[in-house]
Amino acid sequence: MQHHGLPTRLLDWSENILFAAYFAVINDPKEDAEIWSLLPWKLNENHGFWGTPLQNSRVLKYFASEPFHSNPSKLAKELGLDNEPIIPLAILPTLKFQRIRAQQSCFTIHRPPEFGSRIEDAIKEDNMFTRYIIPAEKKKDFICKLDYLGVNRSTLSPDLDGLAGSIKDLSFSIGWGQPKLLHLEKYAPQLSSDQ
Fold first, then answer.
1. CB-count burial class (<10 Å; 0-12, 13-18, 19+) for 67
2. Which of 8, 94, 84 is CA-nearest to residue 46?
3. What is the DSSP string of 131-142?
4. DSSP per residue over 38-106, as a string?
5. 160-173 pLDDT, tens per residue?
6. Which of 22, 62, 131, 193 has its CA 20 to 30 A from that of 174?
7. How far apart are CA 155 and CA 162, in angstroms?
């Protein structure tokens, strides 16, 4: 739903560092990019288990139900939890959607920000939660090299949105009234100017 502009409590992650790099560098060309690397099992230790929760996990049920419940403390008790979970939870989605499969997606689910709990508050070890900065002036080079490796909009969003975005990324258009020109010599140098 986030791809269609609906805010959620989920934060997107990828199990593939190249995919994460693509999403970090593709927007805001004048701003530095950031990649965060997280060991999800370490985050979930705060909930008393190692690994990712199964769909019947009481903690996961709490996070999924809490926005619709008028009394979060009561919900925690109903689910047999000692306390309301505050620390975000790392989860693996079911692979029902093509984009989730293509992007090797995983998520963290969060309580509202006013609860003051952040991932960096829960994980103190640098090797378990790390931030990498890509300077703004390197973003264009990253995009080009990622494309050479087959990491681009059309491979990460294997649908019409991804195809359209990839065409726009190539800076050419095949439609009328578009702001960018089609430079045929770049893509088909054997054509003469009168074709």
1. exposed
2. 84
3. EEEE-GGGHHHH
4. E-HHHHHGGGT-SS---TT-HHHHHHHHGGG-S-HHHHHHHTT-SS---S-EEEPPPS-SHHHHHTTEE
5. 888 887 777 666 44
6. 22
7. 7
